[in-house]
Amino acid sequence: MSVAVQRPHPRASAAGARSGYPCPMRTIGFVRSPAFVTLGEALPLAARYWRATWDRWLLVVVAVALATGLAEWLLGGTVIDQRTMSRALLPGTSGQIDPSELPGLMAGPLAVGIVSIVGGWFLLANAVAGLRSREITLAWVVSSGLRSLVATMIVALVFVGLVMVASGLGPVGLVVLLALTPVLMYVGLRLQFWSLAIFDGSSINRGARASWALSRNAVLRALGWGLAVFGLGLLVAAVDLAIGFLLAGVPVIGSVVGSAIDTAFGAFTVVVTAVLYESQRLRTQPQPAMVYPSAPYDPDGPYPPPPPPSQD
Q1: What is the dihedral of CA 275, 278, 279, 283, to 10 degrees?
Q2: Is the Cβ–Cβ distance between 106 and 70 less than 8 Å?
Q3: Within-domain flag for 146
């Protein structure tokens, strides 16, 4: 099954974007070269594309919400509570966890986690499809998603390894881990395009190198964009908190609504990151220097963007 992506004429997209009306498009409607896009331009661009592709990410929202509801209702919850974590990490104080309890404790979080991961693949594919005017196919989503999962696992294993080493060193290790926090944040910013590069055609190794190259001399820019999205996320979190308070008597419904809102916002943030990815990709190529910043963006013009990175 595939979703066809209709590509409008670039000048029609630019005119629609300038008019202030949502463009009937399935691509991110850059008005000028993405190399020169600002945060103030990126947020409306992402919002327009987010609205235009609601039929794609809505399926992900419904899937995650259903998984959350079933996990809360039938599997005992979507997260492991603090008391249970204390029992697992500090046996002897509250009683060690019986191995027979583990399947019941892990079933809910694992089910929601798997659905969220696979749903995230479709959100990434939707964002890249908006950059490349391509159709979303199941083969593309699964193959790129599995490579992206490996990249995520590599980062997670490195982080867990650092935490375990720090825990083994006691208080000194904790101090070292705190001192390394800025370094870890820096590395995270440099690798934030890893999954997008993979969905854009890179292998795991080339995706990491591409993300590192695209973020060179742009860490502060990426940080600023990230803080802006984080601020929007705080507003979404406030809405979640208010809904949870209103639905305190029916926590299952509150969890379902909250997960739906968070997933929909996640679809938007992925598109914002994709806009930044495309901007940095063109900034590192020679073509943008030959284009006047205010010139309309024309992918079919004399200075088209370079092709996506090829796989190894």
Answers
A1: 170
A2: no
A3: yes
- The parent domain of residue 183 ranges over 36-288
Residue listed under structure tokens 């309890």: 101
Give residue 36's identity as a one-letter amino acid code. Answer: F
Residue 33 zone, left/alpha/beta (φ > 0; ψ -120 to 50; rest): beta
The three-class DSSP label of residue 302 is: coil
Residue 16 lies in a domain: no
Q: Report the half-sphere exposure of 58 (CA within 13 A, side-chain side).
A: 5
Q: Distance between CA 264 and CA 238 in Å, rounded?
A: 15
Q: Is residue 284 part of a domain?
A: yes
DSSP state of 29: -
Domains identified in the chain, total number: 1
The structure's pTM equals 0.78
Secondary structure E strands in 160-262: none
CA distance 36 to 51: 23
Q: Of the candidates 247, 224, 262, which has an alpha carbon nearest to the alpha carbon of residue 116?
A: 262
**pLDDT tens per residue, range 97-152:** 555 555 555 666 788 889 999 999 999 999 999 999 889 999 999 999 999 999 99
Residue 2: in which H helix or E strand, if any?
A: strand 2-3
Residue 73 belongs to a domain: yes
DSSP bridge pairs for 32:
296
28 in Cβ contact with 108 (< 8 Å): no
